[in-house]
Amino acid sequence: xxxxxxxxxxxxxxxxxxxxxxxxxxxxxxxxxxxxxxxxxxxxxxxxxxxxxxxxxxxxxxxxxxxxxxxxxxxxxxxxxxxxxxxxxxxxxxxxxxxxxxxxxxxxxxxxxxxxxxxxxxxxxxxxxxxxxxxxxxxxxxxxxxxxxxxxxxxxxxxxxxxxxxxxxxxxxxxxxxxxxxxxxxxxxxxxxxxxxxxxxxxxxxxxxxxxxxxxxxxxxxxxxxxxxxxxxxxxxxxxxxxxxxxxxxxxxxxxxxxxxxxxxxxxxxxxxxxxxxxxxxxxxxxxxxxxxxxxxxxxxxxxxxxxxxxxxxxxxxxxxxxxxxxxxxxxxxxxxxxxxxxxxxxxxxx
Length: 351
Ligand code: SF4
What we know:
This protein is an alpha/beta fold. It has three domains: 4-18 and 122-207 and 332-350, 3-Layer(aba) Sandwich (Rossmann fold); 30-119 and 307-331, Rossmann fold (3-Layer(aba) Sandwich); 210-288, NadA-like (Rossmann fold, 3-Layer(aba) Sandwich). It is built from 16 helices and 13 strands. The chain has helices at residues 12-15, 30-47, 59-67, 75-84, 96-105, 121-124, 128-137, 151-154, 166-175, 186-196, 215-224, 238-241, 250-259, 274-280, 312-318, 330-350; strands at 4-7, 49-54, 71-73, 89-93, 110-112, 142-146, 159-161, 180-183, 199-202, 229-232, 246-247, 264-268, 285-288. The strands form three sheets. It has a five-stranded parallel β-sheet. α2 (30-47) runs parallel beside α15 (312-318). The longest helix has 21 residues, at 330-350. The chain binds iron/sulfur cluster (SF4). Iron/sulfur cluster binds at residues 56, 95, 120-122, 148, 207-209, 270, 304, 306-307.
């Protein structure tokens, strides 16, 4: 497939992103851990709330979602679950755009987050006004934005996509002869352009977690574990994708651990996913892909610092009031709803 893509100029806002340090790790005894999980479960029940957690949140948060009748998934599945649940209060453990997406789809529900300060480098690196300026220069292009954007950027889009359906949506648009303006992740955009051959102009953004995986480090790891399959998320650099046995979204990588015959996996995505991988295949071995190599800074060390803010004590705090409720202004919500609904209708047709 001949790819036709180019990457736009690097926005100044990207270099200004302040990546927080990881919060201190909890060191709880087994008894204290169980007691905290039970307390949080009871608080969810008393509030009539359901917990929707991303695969990248800490294992305790995912465990709480499992044992309280909530849900753990990728951003597309979280959006679907949040929209379809009967619960009137949904707690979204993830990052801000996920809480916003839930609110856009379900304005009648109370959407709480353990912290409203959990950001995403892709969202922060694509300010709505700078994106509007680029869009104005390319009115002929269909605007497709990744779910990892603010409501104000989604409101400017024709389509929203997640990594699990990006290739299908762009193939569909390319078959209609449309050229694409894509934001914000350049690596995912390049991967999609290469898979589909679509004409894509890419916003120059990146995920601080996936951009840090380095081919050199993975090659060294492969030498140590020659039998292991390499699993890579498409937000990673091209040289890392070239080493993959399977490239895919979090859900697709989770499936790969069950479908592939390998017993060992080198996993190049946030290590939060190990909780579900281990649960699905307890007899298999999962190895973190290294973030070492030329140019590595280890700002993330394979764990999103914003996802790491989703602590159980913060969740319990959020359940005590409405201060951590997500708000999206109504006219903005209605604009952002259209491209989101287009994505959900497209995926419903595919199922
Ligand atoms: S892992 Fe990357 S894409 Fe996901 S929330 Fe963190 S910074 Fe954003």
